[in-house]
Amino acid sequence: MHAVLPVSLALLSPRSPALASTPAWTASPRIARPAVMLAAPRDDSPSSLFSPESWTEKGFDGVQRLPAACRAAEATTAEAEHLALAFLSQDADSVVARTLSKAGSSAASLKRQLEDFSARQPKVKGAAPEQPSVGASLLALVRGANNERAALGDEFLSGEHVLIALAEEPRCGRAALRAEGLDAAKLRTAADEVRGGRKISSKDPEAAYEALEKYSRDLTAEAKAGRLDPVIGRDDEVRRAMTVLSRRTKNNPILLGEPGVGKTAIAEGLAQRIAAGDVPESLRGRRLLALDMGALVAGAKYRGEFEERLKASVLREVTEADGAIILFIDEIHTVVGAGKADGAMDAGNLLKPALARGQLRCIGATARRGGSEGAASPSGPPLCAGATTLDEYRQHIEKDAALERRFQQAAVFVAQPTVEATTGILRGLKERCEQQPPPAASH
């Protein structure tokens, strides 16, 4: 028999008084969070350890899944394996799943190990209680996680602390993780890689982890894997972009052209050249990442959340790469005003310092409106002549003088291909398109 502590998990229920009084700032979007956030557990009592103020948002989500994990196991007492299974039931993007993946295992594999152990434990006859009591192994696991949090200098408990503490848990965790070839040291290293060396100082630190993987596409990796279509007839534009990127200053090219002429294809052509090593020495080994501004802005409800994603996550990873990463921002005019709320900065203002210091190399693409007569030449500045107007560029970039200077004398004009060039492009793509299997007829 295992010792059972007279503590209920009722405080984890969404209906419990502990969670009933939701702070006003969680109900209203795009308003400031409270200036002072409660720190990690003041003591290791169960009421403090299981309090929502002690955990990150994703961490407490895992804790709230604990009663359901107990009911699935038909257990009256919540033990260490149930908390581990609760965290392993989170989505594939959770910090626990990513840490296990980085360490060479998987959440699914560890989950099977713990489910097998749980299946061998005594079951309750009849319906399991709605709120099981807290077992000694569970409390020991959470206390171990809190010790790990303190050792790492974090302010809040999170899933990776539970996972690392599980490696020293004698009831089931140590054996299950050893069967996966993992121990506390390996998990600590993997968690540090996922976190990028950051400390947990906010309730939502997971949004900053591996930000480039979440908010961008690696065009260079796709080129190496052969997933990009060949770029034909755009050698001049690709060479011009490489020339601008190779400068010491003013090295952020901006692709100007009408909608649909193939501005994104220039970036893909550059990625293919980098993958093949057919670039100047200054660009060899670089990664070209296409930033997804839509994903970056999506879900940023609170003031400062978007800025934290872009500056503290994306730009920090790019800066720490020390020139190894080149960002491609399609429809770059959208960064002016992106994520902006009252009292907040937009993406353009966040990009300017990194661009000015040369810490960030960026390729932008935006559309122009009107005919091509009198348009700027590929080597000319982003200006127009005659009746031609540069719609989005003039509307959004040019009116921001500081941002416009970052792209000054770096325009790459992408013209509509001629009939002869279009024929050549189609001939070049013919073989690849023919390899695509035809759609099956439905009966």
Automatic annotation (TrEMBL):
Tell me, what is an example of a GO biological process annotation in this record? Answer: cellular response to heat
What Gene3D superfamilies does its record include?
Clp, N-terminal domain, P-loop containing nucleotide triphosphate hydrolases
Range of residues in the leader sequence: 1-20
A Pfam entry, by short name: Clp_N
Entry's Gene Ontology cellular component terms: cytoplasm
Q: State the UniProt keywords alphabetically.
A: ATP-binding, Nucleotide-binding, Repeat, Signal
> Does the entry feature the keyword Signal, yes or no?
yes
Alphabetical list of InterPro entries matching this protein: AAA+_ATPase, ATPase_AAA_core, Clp_N_dom_sf, Clp_R_N, ClpA/B_CS1, ClpA_ClpB, P-loop_NTPase
Give GO terms: molecular function aspect only: ATP binding; ATP hydrolysis activity
The residues covered by the Clp R domain are: 52-197
Q: What is the protein named?
A: Clp R domain-containing protein
Record organism: Emiliania huxleyi (strain CCMP1516)
